[in-house]
Amino acid sequence: MRFIVVEDYESLSRKAAEFIGQEIISNPSMVLGLATGSTPLGTYRHLVEDAKSGKLDFSRVTTFNLDEYIGLPPSHEQSYSSFMWRHLFSEISIDPARVHLPLGLFEDAEAACAQYEKLIEQAGGIDLQLLGIGNNGHIGFNEPDDKLGARTHIVRLTEDTIQANARFFEKESEVPREAITMGVGTIMQAKKILLLASGWSKAKAIQQTIHGEVDTEVPSTVLQMHRDVTIIADFEAASLLDLSEVYICLKEYQPPRE
Ligand code: GLP
User: Is residue 32 classed exposed, middle or buried when 0-12, 13-18 and 19+ CB atoms within 10 A define those classes?
Assistant: First the structure.
């Protein structure tokens, strides 16, 4: 695990966009796993700027999003599909046929989940998966539990997550109670993982992700078993870490070449 601590949210966003940009430049037809939530918004803003200035070309990039609320059509303002189109896809030249999100409306849940896994497999797997983190350590929508779903599956959201995500809806009662999410196995199969964390509310989850025992009750701890994970956190999110560890990790960090 590489751990990069930056000063603030803006530096985190810039560094994350540089990281993703380097991957696209070295492999223009890469498969990029994407995340929603407020954390990656600054990263997407920088990626859009870099695409508009001609520094980045998304035309051959294939994307797969982590998750979607169940019951919201893609056109719903709070669906993750419309979030992604609003903040990234409609601002860059990307082939819509290469953009994938799990569908939150379906007749057969099992078939919808299996189909999403098949699409990822057909694309050759995910090269780089971007992740945010829930206050409770969830990744995608893999919530704390006594066992975690390996592949794309349907989950019941915890009260904690419903409350945290209520800020995007008019009323808490409007937050969907279920979601479809890539499983932990799907995420762990990505060749590289980049996790972003910003703010005090993520400090405990980041501490557990790095120093905690691997435990399904804190889903992000499974990332300790992945061979290529980079975490970028701001000072607030890194505030509960053992400073000597952070120092060692910072020394290990090699900035991407310009
Ligand atoms: C949602 C998403 C996660 C995201 C999390 C944190 O629950 N399903 O993928 O990481 O929110 O969101 P934020 O970045 O807004 O704190």
Answer: buried
